[in-house]
Amino acid sequence: MDRDSIIRDFEDYIDKYQLDYSEIYVGITNDVERRLFQEHQVPKDHYWWIYSPADNNDIARKVEQYFISKGCQGGSGGGDDSSNIVYAYKTSSITNP
User: Fold this and answer.
1) What confidence tens digit (pLDDT) does each residue in 65-92 have?
2) Which of 5, 43, 65, 87 has a beta carbon 3.0–4.6 Å from 47's, enabling a disulfide?
3) R_g over Cα of the chain
């Protein structure tokens, strides 16, 4: 998926649930099951999360940086060249940043 489409989808999702960017962690990965649900300990059911594959790593990094610049938690520079999935979730006491 291209940069603008991912940004639009994520922003629509954020707006739908009226979240503040500061409540959200954003990152990139090549394995969403491992990173989002195992390492970050995000519940799969009844919890706020979203992810989308980007067309390539460069697009994923640009989307990640866009949301960090909007106030989301996270840090650029993670992942590797195969990390083309952008993910975001609402941080809470049950998740692991």
Assistant:
1) 999 999 999 987 778 899 999 999 999 9
2) 43
3) 12
**With the C-alpha atoms ordered 47, 57, 6, 26, is the resulting torsion angle positive or negative?**
positive
Q: Could you tell me which of 70, 50, 74, 71 has the C-alpha nearest to residue 1? A: 50
CA torsion, points 55, 69, 91, 14, in degrees to nearest 10? -70
CA dist., res. 71 & res. 94, Å (int): 21
DSSP for residue 74: -
Does residue 61 sit in helix, strand or coil?
helix
Buried b (16+ CB within 10 A) or exposed e, 26-40: bbbbbebeebbbeeb
Q: How far is CA 6 from CA 43, 92, 95, in A?
A: 22, 24, 23
Sorted by sequence, the CB contacts under 8 Å of residue 13 that are 6+ apart come out as: 50
